[in-house]
Amino acid sequence: MSRRTPLPAEPGTVFAVHDAVEAGISRAARDHPAFFRPFRGARMLPVQDQGHVAEIKQRMRALLAVVAPGTFFYGPSAAVLWRIPLPYGLLDQLHVAVMYPASAVRRVGVKSTRMRSHLADVVDGNEYRALSAAATWASLAPFLDDDDLVAAADHLICPGIDPGGRHPERVTPPICTLEDLRTVLGRGRWPHAPRLRLALERARVGSKSRPETQLRLGLTAAGLPEPELNRDIWEGDQWLACPDLVYRKYRVCIEYQSAHHRTAQQYDADIDRRRRLQSAGWIVVELTSTHVLRSPQTSVRRVAEALRERGWEG
Length: 314
What we know:
- The protein is an alpha+beta fold.
- The chain is 37% helix and 16% strand.
- α10 (264-279) links the parallel β12 and β13.
- The protein is elongated, with a radius of gyration of 24 Å.
- The N and C termini lie far apart (84 Å).
C-alpha cells in the first residue's frame, strides 16, 4: 500500500510554487489536494470559518507571493487592511498597483493599475504591501459614491471614543488626520480629485460607522441642523450618555441601533440609558439599519418631528 503524502503546512500557509521547487519540496507535497490554488503558481491552505474578510486577506497574501516585488494593494483591497467601511460588491476582485512605468499585473480575478511614485505612498507590513491609509482613501474615489467617500474619511479621522471619560487610557488616536488627507491630495492629480476635495469638506470627526455618516449626511441634506457626533451629555455632575448624534440646543439625541445592540447585555444598557435621558428631558430617536439605509426619508421625518417638538422652525 502506498504511503499517503503528508500535509506539508499549517492552516494559513501561503507559498509560491517556484519557491517550493527551489526549497526542494516534492511535487506531491506542494500539490497536495488540501491546498487551494487561488492564482496560477500559488498554493494556500485555507483557515476555515474565519469569515469573508479573512478569506480576502488570504487571497491577498497568495497574490503577493506570485507577483513581481514592489506590487502593492490600492483601492478596495487596501481598504480592507485599514478596515475602511465599503459597500457590498467591491471585494470580488483584488486591486493591485505597480509603480509607473512597470507593467500592470495580468491575472484572473485581479484589477491592476500603474501609479506615479509621488502619489504611491506605500507601507510595508508584515504580510502585505499597500498604500498608506490616507493614500488608500484617495485611491477609492473611482469605486465609491460621494457619501461613501465621506464615510471612508470619517472612519480614518475618528479617534477612539471614551463615553463619560472613565477610561482615557482606552482612547486611541485616529488612523490619520484631516491634514494627512489634505496632504495626500496635494501631492498630485488624483482621479476624481474634485470629489475627494468635496468629501473632505463634508467629513467630520466623531462618526463611528458608515451608517452614522450616512444618517448625518441625509439629515443635513434635508435641511436639518448639523448634529454633534458621539458627544457626552451631562446633567450637572451626572453623566447620562454619549449618543451617536446630539442636538444639544433642542435636547434631542439619536441612537443608531446596529446588530451590536441586539445582545441581552447591550439591550439592558440601552434601556437604562434611554431612561436616564428621558428623565432629564431629552427626546431619544432610535433608528435601525432599515431606517437609515433602506428608508432614509423615515429617519429624516422622525428626527425633524422631534426637533420641531422642541422649537426648531425648519
